[in-house]
Design a protein that fits this description.
CATH architecture of the largest domain: 3-Layer(aba) Sandwich
Number of helices: 16
Oligomer: single chain
Structural class: alpha/beta
Number of domains: 2
CATH class of the largest domain: Alpha Beta
Helix content: 25-40%
Bound molecules: adenosine-5'-triphosphate
Shape: elongated
Distance between the termini: 41 Å
Length: 432
């Protein structure tokens, strides 16, 4: 297909691109069993762990991925280096399309792209000594003589900060502290001299006191070895510290990408703004409004239409003819959403009055926009009678532009891109 060959050509030309993901998807099937589908008539459903992600990571760059739990960070990282197969899309590594590699070619690629796991306690085989554990990848890849391997293992242990290396070589991992074990994990990943490192929550299981020293190891290694790294973490201040750029994921999509400082100091996407607002300030003198993220990340099987963040977004765009304060509009939208899903969040089981429902959702008794008030009142009056026509009216009359179609990625600032209609330069919406 012409699009693929054109983009391939670009990748080959762009020497400084280490990894390029093109429209990457990773979907996991649920109800995979044929029997359950036949017996219960269920069609296959999919977890949209990663959806249409495109991003480039430059050679020598440290790229961070953040987002709430379940947003797809680990799946994106693993798919990017083929620890799991993508459902769709292309992976270009060093200018070569590695998407369909298998056999010996895949094994060669594995040498280049290594991973450091989150948990230093269960990611090391306790039957191996530190030496055996770090040497094993060299044996698997049939590298060097025993003497050469010994020199390489000791050198790598030292690089990972286990000094003197001879003292650690014959220890068992169970005899080591968490920080030391994480350094053993780092040494095992580095022994093959990879050019790309995936570090998934590399410090989250460690004490705060040890965390800083492990992060220093990463920073030093990146400088000295010129490694390209993909760091995954919930901790935005950690990512700001060690990354050049940060990508924010929400429900399988990359909703904002930009330089680490800009993402933290000047977030553009409403989701990033909410995430960042919960990070404790380094500088307490600078006032930042705390934006509360209401609710949980929705189910990745049945993803919301339009912008996936719209059911929780504090900046949800109202329909053109709706004239309400933003917080009132958000409250109306929450009530509308739950009415349409027949899932009202109410305090008790008794059939509530429209006024009680409004109060529960923080919607004023009378709205300043009489049209919205009338549509909502009608839906509330007929709520117990499941009146389809009234619900259809509620659905159509109060539909936000954020619920429609697929939302493109826009250039939000000179250096940040954001998947939010507020950043459509040709759109009618004002960025607040
Ligand atoms: N092997 C799998 N089979 C089915 N679903 C999966 C599988 N792995 C991940 N998922 C689902 O994919 C979605 C993304 O999960 P993932 O672990 O990538 O998110 P995450 O952002 O890394 O979360 P966390 O921060 O908690 O590690 C979730 O809904 C998860 O339940």
């Amino acid at each position: 297909m012409s699009l693929t060959s054109e983009t391939d050509e670009r990748a080959t030309q762009a020497d400084d691109v280490k990894l390029r993901l093109e429209n990457l998807d990773k979907h996991f099937a649920v109800n995979q069993g044929i029997l359950s589908r036949i017996l219960r008539g269920e069609s296959s459903q999919y977890v949209h762990a990663v959806d249409d992600v495109s991003v480039e990571i430059a050679d020598g760059e440290a790229f961070g991925l953040a987002g709430e739990s379940g947003c797809g960070k680990t799946t994106l990282g693993k798919t990017a280096i083929k620890l799991t197969e993508p459902t769709n899309g292309r992976i270009i590594f060093d200018g070569e399309d590695v998407t369909d590699l298998s056999g010996g070619d895949l094994k060669a690629f594995r040498r280049e792209a290594q991973v450091i796991h989150q948990n230093p306690y269960d990611s090391i085989n306790p039957r191996f000594t530190v030496y055996e554990w770090v040497e094993e990848p060299l044996i698997v890849h049939d590298i060097g003589t025993p003497e050469e391997r010994e020199a390489r293992v000791l050198e790598t242990l030292e690089m990972a900060g286990l000094e003197p290396p001879e003292a650690y070589a014959h220890e068992y991992p169970t005899e080591l502290s968490g920080g030391e074990r994480q350094r053993v994990g780092i040494a095992r990943a580095l022994v093959l001299e990879p050019s790309f490192l995936l570090a998934d929550e590399p410090a989250s299981m460690l004490d705060v006191s040890i965390r800083a020293s492990i992060l220093e190891v990463f920073e030093r290694l990146q400088d000295e070895l010129g490694l390209t790294a993909l760091y995954i973490s919930h901790d935005l201040s950690l990512l700001k510290h060690i990354c050049d750029r940060i990508g924010i994921m929400y429900l399988g999509e990359l909703v904002e990408v930009g330089p680490a400082d800009e993402i933290i100091d000047n977030p553009q996407h409403p989701y990033t703004q909410a995430l960042v607002s919960s990070v404790p300030r380094v500088d307490p003198d600078v006032d930042r409004e705390r934006i509360e993220l209401v609710g949980e990340v929705p189910d990745a099987v049945d993803v919301p239409s339009g912008c996936r963040f719209h059911p929780r977004c504090p900046k949800l765009i109202p329909p053109e003819d709706v004239d309400l304060e933003q917080d009132v509009w958000r409250a109306v939208a929450n009530l509308r959403r739950d009415l349409l899903e027949d899932d009202l969040a109410l305090a008790d089981d008794e059939t509530p009055t429209p006024a009680a429902i409004r109060a529960e959702y923080g919607v004023p008794d009378e709205l300043s926009d009489s049209h919205v008030d009338e549509v909502l009142s009608a839906a509330l009056e007929t709520y117990t009678q499941s009146d389809e026509a009234t619900l259809d009216r509620l659905r159509e009359a109060l539909e936000s532009p954020c619920e429609r179609g697929s939302i493109p990625t826009y250039q939000a600032t000179g250096v940040q891109r954001s998947q939010c209609l507020l950043h459509d330069p040709d759109g009618p919406y004002q960025v607040e």
